[in-house]
Amino acid sequence: MSKTDKSCETGRASNFLEQIVERDLAEGRVPGNKIVTRFPPEPNGFLHVGHATSICLNFGLAERYEGECNLRFDDTNPEKEEQVYIDAIREDVEWLGFKWAGNVRFASSYFDQFYEWALHLIREGKAYVDHQDAETMRENRGNFNKPGVETADRGKSVEENLVEFEKMRAGDYEEGKACLRAKIDLQSSNMNMRDPVLYRIRKVAHHQTGDKWCIYPSYDFAHGQEDAIEGVTHSICTLEFQDHRPLYEWFLENLPVPTRPTQYEFARTNLNYVVTSKRKLKRLVDEKLVSGWDDPRMPTVSGMRRRGYTPGSIRKFAEMVGISRTDGIADFSMLEHAIRDDLNTNAGRAMAVLNPLKVVITNLPEGETQNMMAPVHPNRPELGERSLPFTRELYIDRADFNEDNTLSRKKFKRLVSEEYIRLRGAYVIKHEETIKGESGEIVEIRCSYVPGTVGENPPEGVRPRGVIHWVSAEHGKKAELRIYDRLFNHEAPDRGDEDFLTHMNPESFKVTEAWVEPSLVNAEPEQGFQFEREGYFVADRYDHSAEKPVFNLTIGLKDTWAAKA
Fold it and tell me: How far is CA 466 from each of CA 142, 250, 387, 496, rounded to the nearest angstrom?
């Protein structure tokens, strides 16, 4: 199968970017017939769900058409960048299941080349050193209704600008006292073309280059040239960079770059009930409104990972959202559907009792343990079985017992006085007696088991109302359950005049305890389970241990937000 037939291989229609790639390959426009894409994050925060879909797009295109995708950090602003962000981003990309071509790349690796290209523009009379302060420069650039104003600095000679730029590099000027600007068009209707800044002074050390530089290229100046240096064939950006494309093309036309990449724009992934602004996410972290960037309520990749989302579910979500040329808002329930679908297929089953009521099996001798065997997954026999110790004392959920045996079976399919119920994977039991405390609360119920009903139909006359989950009181383990929900209770928390923090969901996090199957203490960190009738949970990535089991609620079995909406 040829590279141009790859979209047919998946059995789904091509998006517009796939169509562009296939056209370029078919018409011989791609050097070496190998496409090169890139994912270029700025290391000034953790990646979020929008970045995840961009990762899936760029790496996915490279995979589909047997090309390469580069991971490149656009690290041109050392004031806001940290190594911890670089490490987290690398880990996120790998966790999502992608591999970049060659070594990790950095814009800072090209700083020497950018400097030479800045000198080239000065020598060509296409760049100049400007000494206006930021406020004056902003005023003199004008706006959509007012043309820019040419200042005296714009008319200086090449020789003067070369001297001034060298002074900038040598640290002779303080921050804000000089910058290098491109000389393009102060009358342009595109504000990005009104003599944009190419270099500014920042007297701070860089996490990659140390104290070598005190001037740093702007993001706009570096971005397109990085693609050119790396031989990127399809430079894919989100729509907010559409108005920047003429500027990128101007740089490529006026610099001796080795290749000429083409930029294409697509609509970024927007979700309701979510905030993805790095500035606002950082505020949540800095003000300790969440436990960190990887708080399981955060829309960051690391947060979703700790919550128990899977790489497969996020990739599936990216496919469901699709690629478009127009902005839209996806419903958060779409992401949740992808997660439930993945976990329903892949997560092992287990039992956990959150609100325990003791059950005493009166016809089972004290000290006797019977090991019941149950499948790890009802539809995945290859995953094997798990052992469930059945003992005289058990726990069931308090909501699974009601004294009123006049309740209809249709209305209440759990245990009632003097009737039968089946314990999941074990016997049918019959209620015999209810024990109450001094205030009248139920503290214990006593039942008998029906022999020969493990995995077998009960004898005639024995009609269990339903099936309930349970845990051995003797062998079960206490676990901490962290119950998470959506961080915001408003579908558009960061729009309008209100502070987005006013829309934080006060019910987004709580901690409780549960009795869980004994085998769960041996769960691996990040191992996911369906706790029957309770939801999907994951062993916490950092805090779970055999001595202190900790499980995070990934998602409930049903969408409770649809009814609220």
Answer: 74, 71, 22, 50
Strand ranges, E, within 244-342: 262-266
Is 268 among the catalytic positions? yes
Total structural domains in the chain? 4
Name residue, tokens 């399919």: 413
Has this prediction a pTM greater than 0.70? yes
What pLDDT, in 10s, does the model give residues 340-389? Answer: 999 999 999 999 999 999 999 999 999 999 999 999 999 999 999 999 99
> What's the Cα-to-Cα distance from 458 to each of 411, 429, 455, rounded to whole Å?
22, 10, 9
Q: Are residues 146 and 77 in the same domain?
A: no
Phi, psi of 212 (to 5 degrees): -65, -35
The phi-psi region of residue 65 (left if phi > 0; otherwise alpha if psi is between -120 and 50; otherwise beta) is alpha
Please check whether residue 250 is in contact with residue 223, taking contact to mean a CB–CB distance below 8 angstroms.
no
> Is 278 tagged catalytic?
yes
Residues 435 and 379 in one domain: yes
Domain at 37, CATH number:
3.40.50.620
Residue of 3, 34, 42, 90 marked active site:
42
Domain membership of residue 148 as a residue range = 111-219
Catalytic annotation, pick one of 181, 245, 278, 307: 278
- Does any domain span residue 343? no
Please check whether residue 532 lies inside any domain of the structure.
yes
The SS3 assignment for 437 reads coil
**Dist CA 175 CA 168 (whole Å):** 9
d(CA 234, CA 108): 22
Same domain, 464 and 361: yes
Whole-angstrom distance, CA of residue 477 vs CA of residue 518:
6
Q: Where are the alpha helices (DSSP H) in 445-557?
A: none
- Return d(Cα 153, Cα 131) in angstroms, integer: 7
- Residues 215, 296 within the same domain: no
Q: Could you say which of 268, 413, 424, 446 is catalytic?
A: 268
Residue 148 shares a structural domain with residue 79: no
pLDDT at 526: 98
What are 119's two structure tokens? 């000198």
Tell me the CATH number at 163: 3.90.800.10
**Residue 536 structure tokens:** 């999907």
The answer to whether 392 and 360 have CB atoms below 8 angstroms apart is yes
pLDDT, tens digit (0-9, with 9 covering 90-100), for 429-482 = 999 999 999 999 999 999 999 999 999 999 999 999 999 999 999 999 999 999
- CA–CA gap between residue 238 and residue 348 (Å, rounded): 38
